[in-house]
Write a structure and sequence with these properties.
Layout (H helix, E strand, L loop, with lengths): L1 E9 L4 E9 L1 E7 L6 H14 L4 E4 L2 E3 L3 H9 L11 E3 L5 H8 L5 H12 L4 E9 L3 E3 L2 E2 H8 L2 E7 L4 H14 L3 E8 L11 H8 L8 E5 L12 H7 L1 H11 L16
Parallel strand pairs: 3-7, 3-10, 4-7, 5-6, 10-11, 11-12
Antiparallel strand pairs: 1-2, 8-9
């Protein structure tokens, strides 16, 4: 998808108009399980991109069992409304497809796709957070993978940096590539009490991953403490994770609202 942008450029000598093609970069964040840190990464990266001058929107279309994740993404984007971040919500902590089965109310999957695509017109980078893993069910015959296919997203695979993660990540990537999905990167989330495997997991993944078109790398995200998901600590935590966020921004070569390169500035 391409959007033509007309940017007003001002210099000390003259004033002129410049048009540039701005490619919408859409990323779908998928976990190797639920509760692995997708929301924390999505929210902090969104704030980091905002501070770097990159037009971004982070959304969580499907959410259940509590609004904490939605509130975090709202705060990360400096107070967006719920309707700007979330499409479907259930008080019960179950998947959308399970809610559909239990309540007999169809999930509007196509409506969700249209909603996501509309959000993509509002920014140059769109971060879409899935639910659970790649094959988590969203509606009848539809999974998180189906969502990625429908919106043409690159995948960011988020996983806990602990023993067992190599198998989990490789299985997720195998399932993704079999469905024609492009994998952008793997993010290993630091743990409160890292086990012995955490020292080698990133290197082993780099060795065992197949050759993937467009793959940007394996990134290790630091443990940010028990307040990592505290909306009031977003600015502080962006600073803590600034080095890895900068590496990811550079690897993805994300561009600013006018299509020009951006200079990275720390979060305030």
């Amino acid at each position: 998808m391409h959007v033509t942008v007309c940017a007003l450029m001002v210099s000390s000598d003259d004033l002129y108009l410049m048009t540039d093609d701005l490619r919408l970069e859409t990323f779908l964040l998928v976990g190797t399980d639920t509760g692995v840190g997708k929301t924390v990464f999505s929210g902090l990266f969104a704030r980091y991109l905002m501070d770097a001058g990159v037009g971004v929107r982070a959304v969580k279309p499907f959410c259940s069992g509590g609004m904490e994740d939605v509130e975090f993404l709202k705060a990360a984007q400096r107070g967006l409304g719920q309707a700007e971040v979330n499409f479907w919500y259930s008080e019960e902590p179950i998947s959308p497809a399970a809610a559909e089965l239990r309540l007999g109310q169809a999930v509007d999957f196509e409506g969700c796709i249209a909603w996501i695509q509309q959000k993509g017109t509002e920014a140059g980078v769109l971060l879409v957070e899935g639910v659970g893993g790649l094959l988590a069910p969203l509606a009848k015959g539809k999974t998180v993978a189906s969502l990625g296919q429908a919106i043409g997203a690159q995948l960011i695979v988020v996983a806990p940096n602990r023993v067992g993660v190599i198998n989990q990540v490789l299985l997720t990537i195998e399932a993704a590539t079999e469905r024609g999905l492009e994998v952008a990167c793997v993010v290993l989330m630091g743990q409160k009490e890292p086990d012995a495997s955490s020292l080698d997991n990133a290197s082993l993944l780099r060795d065992f991953l197949p050759v993937l078109a467009g793959f940007k790398g394996v990134f290790e995200f630091p443990w940010l403490g028990l307040g990592a998901d505290d909306p009031g600590q977003i600015g502080v935590n962006v600073k803590k994770a600034e080095k890895v966020l900068a590496k990811f921004l550079e690897a993805c070569k994300l561009r600013g609202p006018s299509g020009s390169g951006v200079s990275v500035q720390p979060s305030g």
